[in-house]
Amino acid sequence: MIKRSLQKTIESKLFKGKAILVFGPRQAGKSTLIETLIKDQDGEWLYLNGDDAEVREHLTNTSATRLRTIIGNHKLVFIEEAQRIENIGLTLKICTDQFRDVQVIATGSSAFELSGKVNEPLTGRKYEFMLYPLSFAEMVAHHGLIKEKGLMEHRMVYGYYPEIVTKPDEEKTLLKLLADSYLYKDLLMLEQVKKPLLLDKLLKALALQLGSEVSYNELAQTVGADKETVEKYIDLLEKAFVVFRLPAFNRNVRNEIKKGKKVYFYDCGIRNAAIGGFKSVHTRTDVGALWENFVISERIKLLRYNDIDARQYFWRTTQQQEIDLIEDHEEKLKAFEFKWGKAMKVRFPQTFTEHYSGSETYVVSPANVEEFLLTSA
Description:
Number of strands: 11
Helix content: 40-55%
Largest sheet: 5 strands, parallel
Strand content: 15-25%
Distance between the termini: 28 Å
Oligomer: single chain
Strand order of the largest sheet: 2-3-4-1-5
Number of domains: 2
Radius of gyration: 22 Å
């Protein structure tokens, strides 16, 4: 079994008097992770699934007396898809306040639902974790650096979802099903998403603009919608862990762009499924953008799992000088350029190096990528 980076971290928070919440996309391995760490604990545990109508009925607007009947003598309670349960925040609050010897763990695949339902009731009563699809670092720990680097081009095409990694003979079929699950299981249950065809068009448009600065106005014209709808749908895609936005960095240089955005996918396989693009990296025209997406998304996993709060940006001037990634951690700047080809001399824009003296600059290529994806310092 592939060991997840979060397992030890979550284990260290058990029975500390707080609810444990694990967010993440469907099929990222949340249930497997929780079941694995629970089985290592003494005693029986209770499993409740928010997709089950009977479970939702019993846990909605419940009371301490009723919860005690449901929980019984169990010391560990695992509630899956908790966002499906109305007023789940209050239910978790009762569990945390009234049953001090009981550890409740809840998972959810929809941050826009679960987070909003628990934030106020569970203020000061919860630990939150984000579980991504498998990471480069986790796979290196599983079967070694040499083997995983050898599979890196494959990961850029098919991604890191556990089922995709463990069932390589069914990758294309499973990825297409997974992409549909992303959109139609979570997003389309929301009242705000009334146009599934528009959502599909937008996802494809974002996939085709990978690595480029996006314009909400241009996207709106491309998909046949207004700017506000496009912005709302991108926000929902981000909260559903499909994409993430990288803002423009600007601090004190007059000609820096101020409000630019780039959009990347949390998983390259989902991105490629959106456009039906499963060609080998050696025959692709988008390999540079795909490499950029791969390393940035993997870097996010590394920083999150190591609890490093580094803000991330891209940098560009109105004269089109550009740096792929800027990390700002405790006022210390690191600038990264990502190159798919063989190591080459890269000159960082003088405008940046002069105005942000003391910042560190790095070039990340397949030859040295392990330094970027295994070392968070």
